[in-house]
Amino acid sequence: MNYNSTRNAALQVTAAQAIAQGISEEGGLFVPQSFPKADLNDMLGLDYIGRAEYVLSRFLTDFTPEEIKACAESAYGGGKFDDNTPAPVVSLDEHGENKHILELWHGPTCAFKDMALQILPHLLTRSLKKTADGKTAVILVATSGDTGKAALEGFKDVAGTEMIVFYPENGVSPMQKRQMNTQEGENVCVCAIHGNFDDAQTGVKKIFTDPALKAELARHNKMFSSANSINWGRLLPQIVYYFSAYLDLVNAKKIKMGDAINVVVPTGNFGNILASYYAKRMGLPVHKFICASNSNNVLTDFIRTGTYDKKRAFYTTISPSMDILVSSNLERLLYHLCGEDTEKLTGWMNALQSGGAYTVDAATADAVRALFYGGCCDDKETVEVIRNTFEKDGYLCDTHTAVAVGVYEQYLKETGDNTPAVIASTASPYKFPDSVLDAFDCEKPADPFAEAELLAKLSNTKIPAPITALRTKPVRFENTCAAADMAARNGQSVKWRCTRSPICTFPLVQISRWMCSAAGKTMWSGWRKTGAPSLPKRIPLSSPGIFPGACGWKRPERISRSSKVCRAKSCC
Q1: How far apart are CA 414 and CA 552, in angstroms?
Q2: Nearest-angstrom CA–CA distance, 408 and 373
Q3: At what angle do helices 120-131 and 232-251 cross, to 10 degrees?
Q4: Which fold is adopted by the domain 120-231+474-481?
Q5: What are the boundaries of each domain within the chain?
Q6: DSSP secondary-structure letter at 552?
Q7: Tens-digit pLDDT profile for residues 27-68
Q8: What's CA 14's distance to the chain center, in Å?
Q9: Which residues does residue 373 pair with via DSSP β-bridges, in sequence order?
Q10: Which residues are identified as catalytic?
Q11: pTM passes above 0.70
Q12: How far apart are CA 507 and CA 528, in angstroms?
């Protein structure tokens, strides 16, 4: 199986090359040249790991069966997911409804991103060995909340990788922010930006295509890669859980083999719902894809009109992972539906970049509407859905899942289509306790962990262990920068960090304990370059170039007096 770029028909790469590179040189996304057919009966008796092996093996033809098996077992085994059940289905059909919740948040970060980001590090490191001559992958991530933590958790301390995550400073929930800012691992870095997710995503794409930065990395035997859903190695594993949900429903006798289903997905970047479309291309019997948006309803408008227009108000909502106006993976869908016309597609993408909008041709617009239904819920409607779903079905859902349920109810009223629906539940409600508590009309405490405890009491549900563990974890990252400075050499920079982290390349000697202030007033204390005079006790943030380890982190780590290389977790 080979892959093409959505913007260059002549380009052809292997699966390993697509995963290692992340994005094509000209900014296009890698797509499979064909879609292998899956035999549902062959997968029916398999567990989740077996189903993952089956799907992945159809696309990763340059990987051995042993490699794929090792990747799947490492990702989904070993107790990483609750009860070793990565993607359970909960049926809410007591009232005659064909409504089934696909819970994708039983992994280490309580979000659906774990389903792909627990396996991506294994796919990526093997891809690098096959294609990149042992280069270190510098993984850039723009996140609206969940991807960042899931990527950090998946890649922490993975040999041959370094990771930098950018998130909008005021565009994630307090619990999401704490998950990222307390992240462990010597090869990871987190930075908030002044802006929204689209600003972060645009900044990451610019860094990817900056020849000077790529040359800088090459001199240090490094290369850029991505853990966002623009990376095929991130998108591919998401196909698996739609097959798994269908087969679980067959085994539970909720549907018969061959019956059609509808798929409902809350989405911002279009990756999760695109994975279900790819499952259909492989043979999964899907009747309709229901695309659920919050107030940032650019996808809803596009599906209904054929015009994609990001020139609109941006809303910070209670479903922050969907606060996106530039849906990168829509490019892949349009590539398939416009007859793989790269010239036409490139024109649309260029129009979006230059003018903020594009309109597809009538045939492509009709093809989109034949497959997809688009709807949206605002914050008030979302809270109401949480309340009603809990009161009616006894099921507690998070703000993103509630958007999906709300849009599905709109679809039912508009169409009367009672085809069994699989609704993707993308996060634990305990990642957003403040907003979920609004559905209970109660007085809320100020502390997010106290909010979680109150929510558990009111709903008679259990707080996930990864959420509970956050309370005592120390904050490591409090860096911020302007979106325009994401690639600048300013002490929080991609260029600086990628060439120096996670191990400083300057020989250092410890002369006393060090101190690093998150407030940025004190940078380092107690270090000097080998053979050089002692540095001042305080190094200001305004002089990051004076000393290779200047940063805004705080996490004391003892280093041997005899060490010639700084390996402090704060030294990147």
Answers
A1: 53
A2: 10
A3: 140
A4: Rossmann fold (3.40.50)
A5: 120-231+474-481, 506-572
A6: S
A7: 899 999 999 999 999 999 999 999 999 999 999 999 999 999
A8: 23
A9: 290
A10: 113
A11: yes
A12: 9
